[in-house]
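A.,

Following up on our hallway conversation. Structure tokens first:
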């Protein structure tokens, strides 16, 4: 008689709809099979998760953020916006309220990255601020004169302790015209790197300020 080997998998029942693989056990889905989670159910992996035998090193938050960023744009039309890692990290955020928007960043941390685009020209106060004065901004702003296309470069250096980006000034003198792009990346605890490209009106002035107490 041919020798036949059977693979045994041990399960323990917990509640009406939950099955748990015994400690040290393995859940194997055979070729052509499928593991399906019904709508409203949760698949919880408390230990190591592998794909093709390779351990997935990313955290759940990182995987979630990567999935959310794929092609997504967040449109802000409210008067205030509190930016969070979970909702906004890695995404494009359109600022779309002429009457102005007050944006507050999360605590600066390495790896955070936000891209803001002014979609509607601001006609009233609009700012992007650090959540605390300890979170300073370094980088630069390239501001084009809206009448003759000359360019002014405004630097932000660590010694200046900037924590605010002004997107109005006096009649858009510090930016806030439609099409302006502000890229903000966390370099470390308490440190943002900022790139600003856009036009300004009137007598151009630096968009960087120190206003957070």
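Then the amino acids I'd put at each of the 213 positions:
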């Amino acid at each position: 008689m041919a020798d036949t080997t059977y693979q045994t998998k041990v399960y323990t029942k917990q509640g009406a709809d939950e099955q748990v693989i015994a400690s040290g056990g393995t859940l194997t889905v055979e070729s052509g099979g499928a593991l399906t989670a019904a709508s409203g159910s949760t698949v919880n992996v408390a230990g190591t998760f592998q794909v093709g035998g390779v351990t997935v090193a990313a955290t759940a938050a990182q995987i979630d953020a990567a999935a959310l960023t794929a092609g997504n744009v967040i449109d802000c039309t409210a008067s205030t916006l509190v930016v969070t890692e979970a909702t906004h990290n890695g995404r494009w955020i359109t600022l779309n309220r002429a009457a102005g928007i007050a944006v507050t960043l999360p605590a600066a941390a390495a790896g955070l990255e936000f891209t803001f685009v002014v979609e509607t020209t601001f006609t009233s106060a609009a700012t992007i601020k650090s959540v605390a004065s300890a979170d300073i901004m370094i980088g630069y702003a390239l501001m084009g004169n809206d009448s003759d296309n000359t360019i002014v470069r405004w630097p932000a250096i660590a010694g200046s302790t900037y924590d605010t980006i002004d997107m109005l000034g006096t009649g858009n003198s510090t930016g806030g015209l439609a099409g302006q792009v502000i890229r903000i990346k966390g370099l470390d605890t308490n440190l943002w790197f900022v790139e600003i490209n856009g036009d300004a009106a009137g007598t151009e002035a630096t968009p960087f300020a120190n206003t957070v107490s």
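The chain has two helices and 16 strands. Curious whether your intuition agrees with the design.

B.
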